[in-house]
Design brief:
Residues 21-392 form the Aminotransferase class V domain. The chain has 408 residues and is an alpha/beta fold. The chain has helices at 5-9, 32-43, 54-74, 87-99, 120-129, 150-153, 176-185, 205-208, 232-236, 261-275, 285-312, 339-348, 361-366, 386-400, and strands at 20-21, 81-84, 107-111, 132-136, 158-164, 189-193, 212-216, 226-229, 317-320, 329-334, 351-352, 354-356, 375-379.
Length: 408
Amino acid sequence: MAFDVARVRALYPALGEGFVHFDGAGGTQTAAPVIEAVAGAMRAATGNRSTAFAPGRRALELVAGARAAVADLLGADPSGVVLGPSATALTYTLARTLGAAWRPGDEVVVSRLDHDANVRPWVQAAEAAGATVRWAEFDPDTAELPAGQYADLVTDRTRLVAVTAGSNATGTAPDVAAIAKTAHAAGALVCVDGVHSVPHGPTDLASLGADFLVTSAYKWSGPHLAAMVADPARWESLRPAKLIPSADAVPDRFEYGTPSFPLLAGVTAAVDHLASLDPAAGGDRRERVRAGLAAAQAHEEAVFDRLLAGLAARSFVTVYGAPARRCPTVSFRVAGQAPARTAAALGEAGICLSSGDYYAYEYFRAMGLRDSGGAVRASVYHYNTVDEVDRLLAELDRLAGTEGTMVR
Ligand SMILES: Cc1ncc(COP(=O)(O)O)c(C=O)c1O
């Protein structure tokens, strides 16, 4: 069934302001049911978690609801869903916890394609333990992260391999399953950054081969909260630093302080929203969320193809990378223009794109682009349209002062 983008756009109140949002990679607009769920939870009588009184039980239900929703989104067990304020915070918690058991001579493998949130926590935990860091390199022309190199990078001393399922700079979707297979054959754990990939297609923890997978709800129409999932038995085997009186059960053991209960209601509503994107889909929420994201993916790919073709047709645009498997995200520069200037000029025209390194620090450093301002990033989400792509391309033409050819 065709993706009804007009119906979907009507679900995002913020789109009424008229901006063109090509910065889903930095955070999407919030879906109306999410806003209503958060407001509803704030309006209702609440308390801290307690079985003694109804508002306290409501708080417990909001936590359980968010765990169940994230589990359906990722194909995980609700008891293995750790909730937290951000992917960065959750990855630091995991890195400190795992790193406490590392010894000099142990090794961790990180990649130069990853967002720094799945690099620096591991590098710093390795440094603290005296462990060695090994780097997976990307191909500078294609921005692919060849899975074959992991056969050399992973040894019997490797404790952890950290890799992205989708680059927030080039869109590259590495062959995580192949990388995980190599890691597991050597007895290493695999932490996958799904922050950029999860909004753009169905995700399955088991088929990725991830021991740990992290996602952030604000990249898929939800609030600024994140989750890290793993097999509950894996969490059971780990002891994070924690307060003495706080819950010692899994997954609560890994969560710090009192969560934002209303925002957890928003996480659940965001997953329900994704599950509604294909109105023809049936089955349980896991099946519907997969169908919804598959429908969104097909739409995003059509919009993104037009964008890529349009950028390629303009000689004044340099596009970085051409990965075969990718999320609908691309980094580029306009000739003779600092990326920040391009982004600011587009912003003046109401077209929202990020510029800089967007924390893909190692990628831009290795490309030699970081010190001169990184790049401009266009990222397509399911509410974007081909008309918006044409607006962006026309504005780029105007900026470049050329008569560039619109791709029709
Ligand atoms: C690929 C990727 N990983 C990790 C992060 C960090 O996520 P958070 O802001 O939830 O810490 C981001 C944020 O932009 C990202 O794009």
